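Notes to self, Siroheme synthase / Precorrin-2 oxidase:
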Amino acid sequence: MDHLPIFCQLRQRDCLLVGGGDVAERKARLLLDAGANVTVNALDFTPQFQVWADSQMLTLVQGEFIPSLLDNCWLAIAATDDETVNQQVSEAAEARRIFCNVVDAPRQASFIMPSIIDRSPLMVAVSSGGTSPVLARLLREKLESILPLHLGQLARYAGHLRARVKQQFATVGERRRFWEKLFVNDRLAQSLANDDRQAVADTTEQLLTEPLEHRGEVVLVGAGPGDAGLLTLKGLQQIQQADVVVYDRLVSDDIMNLVRRDADRVFVGKRSGYHCVPQEEINQILLREAQKGRRVVRLKGGDPFIFWPRGGRAGDALRGGHPLLRCAWHYRRLRLLRLFGDPLDPPRFRAGRPPGHWPPENRRRAGLGEPGGGEANPGVLHGSEPGAGDPPRSLSLTAWLKICPRHRPRTAPL
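result:
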């Protein structure tokens, strides 16, 4: 992460804008919208600046830039068409430890301005780190079309309810479940959009008085080959709603970054033939957390139906022994095929298994004993039993590389 995304409270705080052209005018609008005390320094100004000055919305200082203009400022923006002046502003701000944005020169800037989707108080900022402003703008436009205009009203209304919700629901989990119910309630959203206060009050009262579901939930999510873009939509939703995520070493950092910050993470570190935590103990972890009424996601590398054949029996045990627990499966079959184009129909899947006369040690070390081996994908491996001097582990090289986030296809004789 090259930049830390933050939101600055600038209300009634002094900010300096150097530049008086069209670009500077756009920056001034943002600062004024944020409630900042804006001083604008330039040789010449667009007519709009004079309108703002006449309305006492900002202060104009006509003339050359001088570093003393930065005294007592919290933030500065250099938006002139003169690179030398912009550099002077940047260096003077750096010397005073004042964050400074330099238009069209992100390397000189100590902060950058994102594309903004304003649903105040809900704000969404989109940035390419200054590398591709057009891409950020296109993404912002796409998000603008998706996010309803009434989201701001919904966010403000939720702010009014926070004290009551905190008083009524004792635990963080209960409060989160309530907010999730409220934010997905179409009737409430429509009532807010229509300014129907009675309907808003009735719907809210109904949501507050309805009993919350305390049932635990266990969900198995297949993480695929490590590419977060190949997660199913349902799987992504489950990951982001989880109270506890139990994961293994095949789950990539990109996917783990999608987990909520406040969710508990339990590493069980499994790989083919070597288990840091035995499967039965993993099952007990899932049960123990779900019995507390928590949402538990078992995040497993690969596809759960290919790489965890005993998962179905674990799900049956959860449902049978604990009727209040649910076990769901969310996966996208054969993710590897989307990356490499390898067919994996049942006949080929079976043909890819090692012959029955292979010694058990070769089967285990190669990771090919069962599809549940973890790193190996039998459907893409073919050949005969290795000779006495051949390392059996080399058989799983191709599949091992295919399951890693930095996959590289390799072909080698078996």
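- The first strand starts at residue 14 and ends at 18.
- DSSP finds 17 helices and 14 strands in the chain.
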